Amino acid sequence: MEFEAFMTEAWTEHAERAEIVAERLSTSTSMIREIDQIPGFAQLTAHVFGEHLGQWQRGLELLEALTRLPCFASKTEAERTIVRLRAALGVASGALGPELYTLDISERVRALSVAAAALTGRAETERAASLFSRVLELATCIADDDPATRALAVMSNNLAAELEQKAERSPAERELMLLAAHTARRRWELAGTWLNIERAEYRLARSCLAAGELAAAFEHAQACLEICRAHDAEPRELFWGFECLAHVAHARLDAPACAAALAAATAILPELPDAIRGECARSLEPLTRVS
User: How far is 243 from 137, CA to CA, in rounded Å?
Assistant: First the structure.
């Protein structure tokens, strides 16, 4: 199997078959023939062994093995990625290694962001929240165009989304979810395009809905749709905006607003790509059963 096909399959399957994908990663480093392939492989390694399995030491060992590949070279993006991810797994494991203190502030923000996301995935919310607070303190020292700003936006969005999916949340998880969603919105304002900002408004609306902050959820769902309209967004973006607004209106017991948003979302369904139409239709089912 070619490297790119291997990576695509691994990313597709990793969430449901994490242990199997981890074993494949451990036995497939010989596929890496070019140094530019190392960062992506390393990121998947840290994600699977960290967030999905909590097998910090196995992840650290595999990252170290990447430095022994024939194509590896020091003072490259590959080395920086490995050092950053080793620092992240070390922090998440609770054993602070020396790597973290070799990083500049930008790289440290990125490493701690990865660690906080991994701990959230392992339901270690208190530690994740503590790390996230450290990340936000450090992030005040980085420039708007620093790569860490975008990395923090991505991680914050994913952190909020992860917590939204929980059937029940502790007060600490609720607060972390909202903090992450608000952080994603602010950081995308600095580092992203209008599309990133629109999706951050969607995320924030969803997080507020999950937290029971219905007025704020309604405001952010409307903001999502306003950005879509202002930029002539693709149908899929409009669909998710209306879908979110419909769910928020339903939670607010605003039947007319819910019906209007549901009708708008339903009307967009035929315009969506086949690959996502089924998923989108299913997201409306709870509303169609009660409308």
Answer: 35
Distance (Å, whole) CA 229 – CA 231: 5
pLDDT tens-digit series, residues 186-202 = 999 999 999 999 999 99
CA-CA-CA-CA torsion sign (204, 235, 190, 153): positive
Instruction: Count Cβ atoms below 10 Å from residue 135 Cβ, excluding itself.
Output: 24
Distance of CA 291 to the CA centre of its chain: 32
> Tokens 């620092």 identify what position?
87
DSSP conformation class of 96: -
Full-prediction pTM beyond 0.85?
A: no
Return all residues near 212 (Cβ < 8 A) that are at least 6 apart. none
Q: What is the DSSP letter of 31?
A: G
Q: The tokens of 135 are what?
A: 């990340």
Kindly report the length of the chain: 291
